[in-house]
Design a protein that fits this description.
Blueprint lengths: L2 H4 L10 E5 L6 H6 L11 E5 L3 H8 L4 H14 L5 E2 L7 H7 L4 E6 L8 H15 L3 E6 L21 H25 L10 E5 L9 H7 L6 H6 L1 H7 L7 H4 L1 H16 L3 E5 L3 H15 L4 E5 L27 H9 L3 H11 L4 H13 L5 H31 L3 H5 L3 H7 L5 E4 L7 H7 L7 H8 L3 E3 L2 E3 L17 E6 L3 E7 L3
């Protein structure tokens, strides 16, 4: 049981509880997305407490008013926050709320793939800033809403995902988010300041016992069609050739209810989301206000775009993933290292926790000596360490030295997994080293050169490189520490870009 869930009260006779009858159904989201099947009319009862859990948090994790008061200003200066809802909230009411003590802040992530990407990283960083200031943060994984599909920013409906696929994706993303929060705590948090709590939840946990009829009866009657139809995400889809399905249309209802659930059970009053989520944030605010009269707030985070202005993400096909098996630490490092010069200062403010004064010093050093690319390197290092930890950053640097600086030492320090990450498309071969094995034998065994005289001539002409060294002696027997590294690996290159990785098994 995590720290937030452990604080939940479930006393039937508490005056702040109200009872909601629940009819058991296997999966609420699947019910709306597909065929509804009633399992029982004798369900359990959920007790929602209109609590003041944030007051309990204050006593456990106190933060000074100066820390709270300066947080929004700092995030605005860094560019992490773009807009607030209600529009004037960030100027008065929200700062006063943050100054009153530690608050609970949440952001949702739909597991529509088995990894988040750089486009999602900024939302995680937003949560990290709040946690670093002593607030309690919740990452909500949309195990239910991923089966419905968010229409925001989409020109056509997402492909339907099975419950099993969503479960696999949810597990993977949960691990990724927890890893990033751990890396932040280890490498970026000032230990003199007390962290708020961090919790990862799956919204399927509060939908799986609802029936369609019960949910629509309770939540659906609080929404107005005119308001829902006016949302930009809805309007743009209704005017398209494909239109919008009822399933997608209900997405804003579910996200609004997520906010309401977290507000009632955990005292959450602040939601973070991308600028394309503003309509969904507004729906949550309106629903809570209509149900309870309570004031809650939405904060938007700018969308991360490519150098040509395209949103970075799965749909655009240009995602840089946060899971190592999809984008290696080296590839993530290189993505930020290769950013255009005019992106670097903004990205240092957005994606790192460097003080703004240090960002200014880095940019001044960059202007004095652009060739050293100090700002680019610091940006790449900071982000890689946040996502993959210190070991991931060291791996990225080893791979960089091995590939771009032809460092034999870096090759010897690499594992076979790292080498496969570095040369993701390169064939990987495990072979027994037979006595007298020559350069030409090795090339032929991995099919790196044509058979016969043509392949032999390629070696003589210097087209073959072994461990960054050109070799033109086809009959030379392989020599340990020259052709075979101390880690038992050989990196073979034929031509400019054809790499082959060989792991010798019997050394």
């Amino acid at each position: 049981m995590n720290s937030l869930e452990g604080a939940r009260l479930q006393k039937k006779n508490h005056p702040h509880f109200r009872c909601l009858p629940v009819v058991t159904l296997s999966n609420m989201a699947a019910s709306l997305a597909g065929t509804c099947r009633l399992l029982s009319r004798h369900g359990s009862v959920i007790y929602l407490w209109r609590n003041r859990l944030c007051h309990t948090h204050v006593s456990k994790s106190y933060c000074s008013s100066s820390t709270h008061g300066g947080l929004l200003l700092s995030l605005n200066k860094r560019g992490v926050l773009k807009d607030s809802f209600p529009e004037d909230a960030a100027h008065d009411r929200l700062p006063r709320l943050l100054q009153s003590g530690a608050q609970t802040v949440y952001c949702g992530f739909d597991p529509t793939a088995d990894s988040l990407h750089v486009g999602n990283l900024l939302a995680i960083i937003g949560l990290l800033h709040f946690r670093d200031a002593g607030h309690h943060v919740v990452a909500v994984l949309g195990g239910a809403t991923a089966q419905i599909g968010d229409p925001s920013g989409k020109t056509r409906e997402r492909e339907s995902l099975s419950a099993d696929a969503v479960e696999v994706n949810t597990r993977s993303i949960r691990e990724s988010i927890q890893r990033i929060f751990t890396n932040h705590e280890l490498h970026f948090h000032d230990i003199s300041r007390k962290l708020g709590t961090m919790t990862v939840m799956n919204n399927l946990s509060w939908y799986k016992d609802w029936s369609v009829v019960a949910f629509l009866s309770e939540a659906g009657r609080r929404f107005r069609m005119g308001t829902m139809l006016s949302r930009h995400s809805v309007q743009s889809r209704l005017k398209s050739a494909d239109g919008m399905s009822l399933t997608e249309f209900t997405y804003q209802v579910f996200q609004a209810y997520d906010f309401y659930h977290l507000n009632q059970v955990y005292g959450c009053k602040i939601q973070l989301g991308g600028t394309d989520q503003l309509g969904n944030l507004m729906s949550g605010h309106e629903y809570i206000h209509r149900m309870t009269g309570e004031e809650v707030f939405g904060l938007t985070i700018p969308l991360v775009t490519s150098s040509v202005g395209d949103k970075l993400g799965k749909t655009a096909g240009n995602a840089v993933w946060l899971n190592r098996d999809k984008t290696s630490p080296f590839e993530l490092y290189q993505f930020f290292l290769r950013q255009p010069d005019n992106n670097v200062e903004g990205y240092l403010k957005l994606f790192t926790f460097l003080p703004l004064a240090e960002v200014e010093r880095l940019m001044e050093q960059q202007r004095e000596d652009p060739g050293k690319r100090l700002a680019h390197k610091r940006l790449a290092a900071e982000v890689t360490k946040l996502v993959h930890g210190k070991e991931g950053l060291e791996s990225a640097k080893r791979c960089t030295n091995a590939l771009y600086h032809s460092s034999v030492q870096a090759l010897e320090e690499m594992s076979d997994d790292e080498l496969q990450e570095l040369f993701r498309e390169a064939p990987f071969h495990e072979m027994l080293l037979e006595p007298g094995t020559t350069v030409i034998d090795t090339c032929r065994r991995v099919n790196a050169i044509p058979r016969g005289a043509r392949g032999y001539q390629m070696v003589l002409d210097g087209a073959v490189w072994i461990n960054h060294r050109r070799t033109d002696k086809a009959e030379q027997v392989l020599i340990p520490k020259l052709h075979i590294l101390s880690n038992g690996l050989t990196l073979l290159k034929v031509g400019k870009r054809n790499f082959y990785i060989i792991k010798w098994l019997n050394l």
